[in-house]
Amino acid sequence: MIIEDKLEIIITGTSRGIGKSLALHLLEKNFIVIGISRTIPRIEHENYHHIKADLTNDEDFAEVELNLLTFKNIYALINNAGTANLNHFLFTTSKKTDQVLRLNFVAVLKMCQIVVKKMMPLKRGRIINFTSVAVPLGLEGEAIYAASKSAIETFSEVISKEISSYGITSNCIGPNPIQTALIKNVPNKKINELLGKQAIKKLGSFEDVFNLVDFYLKKESSFVTGQKIYLGGIH
Length: 235
Description:
Number of helices: 7
Low-confidence stretches: none
Oligomer: single chain
Number of strands: 7
Radius of gyration: 17 Å
Strand content: 15-25%
Largest sheet: 7 strands, parallel
Order of helices and strands: EHEEHEHEHHEHHE
Mean pLDDT: 93
């Protein structure tokens, strides 16, 4: 993939897992990466910059916006940060529901509002939002989580129309189970049941996610917008 040097990419949730690995992957491709998370990751690279922020806290968004003023060539926003809720809806508290929705949906909305305004004068950009296979599979015990990700899919599709005239695309990636902190507390039986519903019955990998991110980032993908792709052959 050949893209002009020193384009800036913002990734939320870079403290670990997919976010951290994705940051390292894009640094290798000569992008400048701005990571956002509550914990500063151990990434030692001259092109990595970090903004320490809690994206469930409204006050922290002012700090995010202030820190982003120094970046003038933002090409992509990858909304990776998220949290799960594995519980029957009858036993899900209002506090937990608010936490899930604030990080999985409201934070994505706020990040897009901040970053799209910086992309508009440049007449190009990429928004990549993370959804989940919990949406098409309608997984039991994940009603709130799936609802938050379903909202992301609808949001991404609608804004793809609202920002298209500025050359900005908006797409989703829906990973299947990958060995990250997000699924560490999920029983093996449930993971195996989920894998059994896939066309390709195995866990996903960071590299599978990288492949989709690279595709969406390509200049040649400027005609691809309002789409969602689930890994593993789930529809």
